[in-house]
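pasting input
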Amino acid sequence: EPEVTQTPSHQVTQMGQEVILRCVPISNHLYFYWYRQILGQKVEFLVSFYNNEISEKSEIFDDQFSVERPDGSNFTLKIRSTKLEDSAMYFCASSPSGAAGYTFGSGTRLTVV
Amino acid sequence: AQKITQTQPGMFVQEKEAVTLDCTYDTSDQSYGLFWYKQPSSGEMIFLIYQGSYDEQNATEGRYSLNFQKARKSANLVISASQLGDSAMYFCAMRGSNDYKLSFGAGTTVTVRA
């Protein structure tokens, strides 16, 4: 069964450093998403991406964050100048359309120290 | 904007028994989708079941069924014949008609006892 692949599974970074979280969505999917889950809390939407541009973003997704689809397969989330409160599980998801069929990756657990 | 409410932070259920997880939602959209996901301790998000707002029948997937009561705006998940492997956090989520993102509830932790 096709799956969404995220790397790395765990990342520890120093406060103030930049991190790039990588995702390979399912190949025929057209919509891509990033979500965040702070430990023990609900899953929060960050950004959606369609047709090589951001289609929607939440208020969490400020100038510190950016997304990119640098080639035909990867979808990345960059966090500039990380803060302690950026520590969370970050999930990538993709869907063939905007309506249904979301598939989540296994997540990247980011720890900022 | 969509809002999902899960009022049960945690539940215990005996192995082989059924458990119902509550989910209510609030939306002004006529067309929307409701989802349930399972998150085991390993952290991944596993899709369980989907119900469209215009689906006349309740969705079922194996041991999972969704008790959809549109007038009450509820979409409860029923897990039948609970297994030890069902111990996990369960999230109800919703997609509106004009956006494609999912809005999640706070989740319910289910612990299955032997």
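fyi The CA atoms of residues 32 and 86 of chain A lie 21 Å apart.
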